[in-house]
Amino acid sequence: MKKKTHSEKVIEGKSAVVEKKAEENDKREESGKCQVSMDHEGWFRDFLLLGGRFLLLLAFLSLVISFITPRINFLSPNVSNPSTEVLEDEKEKQTRARKQQQEKHLEKTTAYLENVLKPRQESQIRKKEEHFYRMTGETWKLTEGFQLGEGEDSEDDDDLETTEETPSKKALRKRKLPENILKRPHVPELSKPKKVIVLPEEPKDATDGAVTVALRCPSGRLFRRRFLTSHSTQILLDWMRKVGYPPEIYVVCTSYPRRPLEIKEEFTLENAGITVDTVLNLEEKEI
Hints:
By secondary structure, this protein is an alpha+beta fold. Helix content is 53%, strand content 9%. It has 6 helices and 4 strands; from the N terminus they run αααααββαββ. The chain has a 4-stranded mixed β-sheet, with no helix packed on it. The relative contact order is 0.05.
């Protein structure tokens, strides 16, 4: 075997030292990792324990509160919650206001029934009864009636004793007859015969002095007719009445200038200015 030189021995010693240091470092790293993992596990375990204790404390407090609260309420019954008192007061106010509104509505309905509906129904029934009795000829039932011998005068007793009257004459004198029997029947006056409106015949177009007059009504209708300029203006009023527009309500006006036409019996159409074909307007009189 070959003997190792001094340099080789030194190298082997150094390599052995390096290997030992590497192993020591590896061991330290492994021990550090184990320590870190153990620290993490301990922290998590502590957190779980703390949370469990907190929950247990909350459960204990809730149990104590639920056990003590009824005892306190039982021992102090006079102490009440102000919020519940306010709610009860509001409910009472609402019920009171609702009752007042209902009473007002009831009063209004009863007043409406007594003052409006009931008189209306009574008047309708009365009208139906009057119509029925008139149709059947029993109108005497609509009167209030009277008593025989009503309104007798006791002052004339002495005079009646002296006079010689039969009982039938006395009863006839004392009897009070209805006024409608004593009164004479009203005879209506004969109405006056209506005036028959007769317009003269229309002249032909070729006739001298013939003009066409157009009458424009408020409804929009237009009437045309031929007259002679020698005719009286009164004929226009007759024409108005015949077409359904009485002169008592309507007045004849010229187209331009717009003014009422002067109508008199002695005035002719020529005097009124109607010498050519003319359009006249009908307007209501101002009351």
